[in-house]
Structures are given as structure tokens and as C-alpha cells.
Design a protein that fits this description.
With 118 residues, the protein is an all-alpha fold. The protein has 4 helices and no strands. The radius of gyration is 17 Å and the shape is globular.
Length: 118
Amino acid sequence: MMNLKSYRYAWRGIATAFKSERNIRIQVVMMSLVIAGGFFFSLSWIEWSICILCFSTVLGAELLNTAIEKTMDFIHPEHHPHIGMIKDIAAGAVLLTAIASGVIASLIFIPKIYKAFV
């Protein structure tokens, strides 16, 4: 079980990534739009649960990607093809989770938008 100090370090890591990584800030803005849309369209608890799972998956992948990138840059600051490949793979994981989350959001919201405006 994590102690209070561990939680503090974890939150500090999230805050540091938020401050330093543009993509995380963009993803938080997108999540805010989904949350606003969720309230507007009165999502069910299952739909909210799915959205929260998507949010945490994308942000978790982005945090891991950031950690991998920073580690690789620390270990080998100069460009190296193997380091580039590792960083590309980590970025691919983020892209995959973001695309899947976008598809899921579309499955949830498109029928609601259609019903509300057509």
C-alpha cells in the first residue's frame, strides 16, 4: 500500500508532466470537452465509466511515454536510431489509446448528437 509520501511524489510527477508536456495539456482540454458533453447529454453511469477508463488509459500511456522519453534522453542525449525507435514505439502506444478513445467517444456521442439535433 502506498504511503502519503508516495502519493505526493505521484501527484508531483503528474503536475510536472502537465507543466512540461504540451500533448498532456491538449489531452486534458479534450477530456474537458468530453466531460462537458457528458453533462450536456446526461451520460449514463456506464457511459461515464467508459469515458473515465478512456481518460485514464490515454493519460497513463502519455505519462509512461513521457517517462520513457525523458529516460532515453538522459541515458543517451545524442540522436541514436535505437533510442529513436524506442521513443517511437512509446509514442505509438499513446496514439493507439487516443484513437481507440476517439472511436469510443464517437460511439457514445454521435447517436446522442444525432438524436438531439435531427
